[in-house]
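W.,

You were right to be curious about this one. When I first looked at the sequence I had no strong expectations either way, so I just let the prediction run and decided to look at it fresh. Below is the sequence, 267 residues in total, followed by the output.
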Amino acid sequence: MAILTISREYGSGGREIGQDIAKFLNYEYVNKERILSDIRTLGKKWEEWGKDLDEHCPTVWEKYDWSFKAFAAILQSHILNYALRDRVVIMGRGGNFLLKNIPYALRIRVTAPIDKRVERIMKRESVDRDTAHWLAEKTDKERACMIHSIYGRKWDDPAEYDMVFDTGIQTIGEITVIAKDALMTREKLQTEEAKKTLEMTAIAAAVKAGILTDDSFFIPTLDVYYDGRSLILRGVTHNPKEHKRLEDKAREIAGDVPLSCELHYRG
């Protein structure tokens, strides 16, 4: 079993490639609508953030707002939970960054020349050329901004992907075959150690989301990650009482997983 993440320029054909691979290999297809449906169950506040998942570049104020940080943690937790199922195609949302250290995850990016994308958008969305061009540039800009706001990485950096395809050079069918074959090869890399790394990473994300979405906490800085041995809770808190509450909350979510707290007090 393996995992495929697809990052794509708007109108490049990445959506079609993802759908074709999922259908051919009987993989679960996880797109924006699927994740938004999950987030909707958590409450109106998070649903509103989810609606703007691709079409909104967070302002400076929003980036530092606790609710944006909490939304980002929720998003990452959901993506990782889907990845745990294996045999899944994850469309966008920065899945390639979250699964960078998982050897059985294949991370691809799909691009195309702007004229090719405009033609595809015109046909798919039934819009004129100027509107299609505007949609392509606007959507890509917003996606890049959102990814940078959450991950601090460049959305279009080829080094962040295992394979980069251009549908202006290769057909969607050709790319689908290449990616499918590469994905099947990745299945051999699903070792127990790799599976444990993904599981621990998912639990770390759940701990972070659980704390950041709890209104009773006010923690300006928080990170939760797996260091290969245990989960590390790192951040800034205000006093010993809050320190204990945070640690108790983290241990409640993490269960039996070893957890070390590196919380510091704000002076």
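Here's what jumped out at me. The longest helix spans residues 129-151. And, maybe more interesting for your project: Strands lie at 3-8, 28-30, 88-91, 105-111, 163-166, 221-226, 231-237, 259-265.

Coffee later to discuss?

I.
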